[in-house]
Amino acid sequence: MYADEGVIKIKHDVLTAVAKLAFEGNLEQERDHLPEKLIPGPQAKFRCCIYKEREIIRERVRLACGESPDIEDNGNIIQVLHAACEDCPISSYVVTDNCQNCLGKACVSACKFDACHPGELRSHIDPQKCKECGKCAQACPYHAIAALKRPCKYACPVDAIEYDEYGICRINNDKCIRCGQCIHRCPFGAIASKTYIVPVINAIKSGKPVYAMAAPATEGQFGPKVTMNSWKKAMKELGFRDFIEVGLGGDLTAKAEAEEWYEAYQNGEKKSTSCCPAFVNMIRKQYPDQAEALISTSVSPMCAVSRYVKSQDPEAVCVFIGPCIAKKSEAMEMGIDGNADYAMTFSEIRAMMRAKGISLQEDEGYEYQESSIFGKRFSQSGGVANAVLEVLKEEDKDFDAKVCVANGAAECKKQMLLMKAGRADWDFIEGMACEGGCVGGPSAYREKQLFARDRETLFKEADNRGVVDNLEKYDLSKVKMHR
Predict the structure, then answer these.
(1) What's the pTM?
(2) Residue in 382, 391, 383 with CA at minimum distance from that of residue 467
(3) pLDDT one-digit tens code per residue, 59-90
């Protein structure tokens, strides 16, 4: 998943340092000194000089504090670190060794921007002048000019990565779906997301009732014996008032969407799931004409659990923990009433734990369970659809519709294009922007192939309670399940 583990270490070092200062109450006084402390010099370790390295750290500190790395904030949860992006090759077109330095110089003649010049051994493309039109590559009779697509642009499923006049990456907010796929694909660590470590720590220190909520994708990430009970103990030690698994929200959302799907089925209408905010963003931004009628009005599991917690404790501050970047977008940008107040990734919550010397401990039993196994599997591709179908089965409803499981952003895009063209052969669609589902999220602790066995080991210890029966154990009278 990661382009460079060295980039991850730098990120974690900054997050931990910021978290430690926030807990100590010294962040405002000491944050400006972090670049020098983390990069003491005199020799540079990963860039051309310690001054470039310190500038990158400075930008990362701002992101760790929930701020834009630049003075101007474009409002996106995902930001570009200009100092890091400057090291990326500027031009997408390069002349390879296949160049025969021929007399015809078709490449030079084809270029309309005076960017392609003859060289001693082969032609040369001036990246400062190149407009990436591709005419030189088309003209070369030896196919010696290669088109290089930057990793960030290659990873973006909606073509939201652009470049300014200096070749620095720029994210088009009108296209960006906040999926975060670009972040860990950049080998220079030049794209990152804002974090809310500081306000969460401040809320804990102030004595507010702060609740931690872990995504269904959490189980199995940290080994076969790190259970939700392990998380509950660690989060309470960290200062959270309590902990709850978001799998319960999966049950709540499945129940609500089952009602919507059944009504839509009777009316001959199509419906999509609403739990993946990146998929919801894709529909709204790329296919606005279909959005209102297609997107389920049921809130996501994150929002459902948050509303449940707040129905029990009106003063609650709810913090979601998981592998998803788009959940930050849902919490901070979508304006859904009663949603989680903050969303954090595994790396961010672990930075808070490292700052306090707290670790996840292995659990010998499976003592804590809030959700059905269907709610727990919400984070896997097909899990949402299976949970909805399970509810309809438990309620003995006649439902013979065709359900499409769109696994990954590319498949989501394909199915939406088919729908727009009137060629979709499905009635209902589950869309997950990350391949494999939330378990394949950009901020997962381990790749899904590595922890799949551990996840199944934990699930075998869970009881087989049904979705509907499980929800009857909770007071949901004040929980509104629609937007």
Answers:
(1) 0.91
(2) 391
(3) 999 999 999 998 677 889 999 999 999 877 66
